[in-house]
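[09:14] KT: can someone run the structure on this one? pasting the chain below
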Amino acid sequence: MTRADEATAGDGLIYALVLDGSGGARQLSWDEVAAWVPEHGVLWLHFDYTAEAAREWLLGKAGLNEIVAEALLTQETRPRITVIEDSALLALRGVNLNPGSDPEDMVSIRLWIDRQRIISSRNRKLLSAADIVQSLLAGRGPCTVGEFIVDLADRLTERAEATIADIEERVDEMEADVVTSGAKELRSALSETRREAIMLRRYLAPQREAVLRMAAEKLTWLGEHDRMHLREVADKLIRYVEELDSVRDRASVTQEELVGKLSEQLNSRMYVLSILTAIFLPLGFMTGLLGVNLGGLPGANSQWGFASFILVLIAVLVTQIWLFKRNKWL
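[09:31] RB: done, structure tokens below
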């Protein structure tokens, strides 16, 4: 099994590659990593920060500032960039496309970048990083540190597009369902869609700012061509954030329309029940009054008493229906 398969070893080192400057890379062992010097080429080390060996190396042997090392090991992080002299501490997020996972539960990657070295860490598998490894091993990968960052940011952004398009398609279907059926089960589906849009926007919005800021920073290892590509990535992120805002608003409006339709249905049923109650209230009063077990009730000793009473009830019922129709209550 190769490290390119993203199979985390017990030492926490997932990938160790040195870029050859022509789009290819060579995999390194721990001993070769220890013997690496900048003349060998750009070094990329990718760790699973939950492994104890990785933590020990980052904190004690990587030659990093303690604050930087701790940032590479932190569990919760939002997309951001911090520039320290000619180096950068960068945190990015990508949609979670691992089997059985929710896409909006975004996977984070933390990177320390300087002119000759890239150190990254993650907890869960990130497909964009695996794609870069495969492209490097095939000789079609990034040649410089700047191209590496552009490639990673672009792949993370592209993978978000399909998820956002799926959310938009579901909202379209639910809007049509509300118009045609107004089904109650749409309420939970709309709430879930709004939650997904909010969660994705929560991380894509700061990621947009991080990418824009990186493009604006005067880092010597980031060329003008790289900056142009980063601005293109930022433009995509801006569009995705706007689409998520639109999805959230459309889902909210659709949910309000659904609630309104359900309220109309409830009001209509309550209105029918109110009419029926109004019709049978006087009839019930009359039958209850004449049903008391007391002497002196009219018609109690007449053989036509019950028939007369039924006729009176029918007359009252007809009169009520006439009055309701006259007043347009029916």
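[09:33] KT: thanks! Residues 292-326 form one domain.
[09:34] RB: yep, looked fine to me
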